[in-house]
Design goal:
By secondary structure, this protein is α+β, with helices and mostly antiparallel strands. It has helices at about 5, 15-30, 40-55, 55-75, 85-90, 100-110, 125-130, 250-255, 320-330, and strands at about 120-125, 135-165, 170-195, 205-210, 225-230, 235-240, 245-250, 260-265, 270-275, 285, 295, 295-300, 305-310.
Length: about 325
């Protein structure tokens, strides 16, 4: 998988964004928090591997230019640390319950102001979901820009005690702030590469960490693309989970003596639909392995279910009726 997609960040993400994305995902998928969940363990390893590359300026540059093959050549003869080693270096300590005061860190994280998370419907075709596709999405988004002057920032409330008489004290709250450079919101065009993976389903989300609405003195929200399949009359397939459905009309002769036809699949390869026996109207033929690819298991496919309609002739010439009665008598 693309390392940027694993950490749910764009290729232009800053070091700080990559670090925050790693922290969020590493805590979410840590094996100590997901005991017995093999998928979470695999995901945790992928997250750590991606962070090891993208957090290193030289490795990231090599990956951006030459991909994983370039990294393999660069890393020949050297061994990287395991997922737990990277996690421990980042957080300090060992397991999930004891890496450097996790509780305090999470409370601190919860207090950070975060911008609004944006959800965008991403319309794709059934073919996109069958073969996979990378879409370029251009958007007009809010960004923070430097502005003239200064502003109050990082304000904290502080309790003060004042004596108002013999043995009498009054407590009151004051606010202490720092002076920071001023900022303003501006609109800016931005292009994201959104990877639609094989076998994804409607409602699945493709996340981009901190690509949502920015907020002053806080972290930007996230951006989520939600998959939505666009139906087209030009596409003869219908999807049901990992299976595909196809309607096929055959003649009465083919229904009686058998038939064989070839159809074009979503990626253009030919699929043979055949039955050497009598085919009944409404019969459903199952062709194994010709359905949709299973997401995260793209080498495995669902089935193709072919729904048969038999086209009966409107009329039969009188001279053939006796022949039909004779030939089909007793069947």
């Amino acid at each position: 998988k693309n390392f940027y997609d694993v950490l749910q960040v764009s290729k232009t993400a800053s070091d700080a964004q990559i670090k925050r994305a790693y922290r969020k995902l590493a805590l979410q998928y840590h094996p100590d928090k997901n005991k017995g969940d093999e998928d979470a363990t695999t995901k945790f390893a992928e997250i750590n591997n991606a962070y090891e590359i993208l957090s290193d300026a030289d490795k990231r540059k090599t990956y951006d230019r030459h991909g994983e093959e370039g990294l393999k050549q660069q890393q020949q003869g050297g061994g990287g640390g395991g997922a737990q080693d990277i996690f421990s270096q980042f957080f300090g300590g060992g397991g999930f319950g004891g890496f450097g005061g996790f509780g305090g860190r999470e409370e601190e994280e919860d207090q950070t102001v975060k911008g609004e998370t944006l959800e965008v419907q991403l319309e794709v075709t059934l073919k996109d979901l069958y073969v996979g596709r990378t879409l370029k999405v251009t958007r007009d988004k809010n960004v923070l820009k430097p502005a003239k002057g200064t502003r109050k920032c990082n304000c904290k409330n502080k309790m003060q005690t004042k004596q108002i008489g013999p043995g009498m004290f009054q407590q009151f709250q004051t606010q202490e702030c720092e002076e920071c450079p001023n900022v303003k919101f501006a609109r800016e065009d931005d292009t994201l590469s959104v990877e639609v993976e094989k076998g994804m389903k409607d409602g699945q989300e493709i996340n981009f960490f901190e690509e949502g609405e920015p907020v002053i003195d806080g972290e930007p929200g996230d951006l989520k693309f939600k998959i939505k399949t666009v139906q087209s009359s030009a596409v003869p397939f219908r999807r049901e989970r990992d299976n595909l459905h196809y309607d096929l009309t055959i003649s009465l002769v083919d229904a009686l003596v058998g038939f064989s036809v070839k159809i074009d699949h979503l990626d253009g390869h030919k699929v043979e639909i055949a039955n050497a026996h009598v085919t009944k109207p409404g019969e459903v033929l199952t062709i194994s392995g010709e359905g949709m690819p299973q997401h995260d298991r793209a080498s495995k496919f669902g089935n193709l279910l072919v729904h048969i309609t038999v086209a009966f002739p409107k009329t039969i010439p009188d001279k053939l009726k006796d022949v039909v009665r004779k030939e089909f008598a007793g069947l």
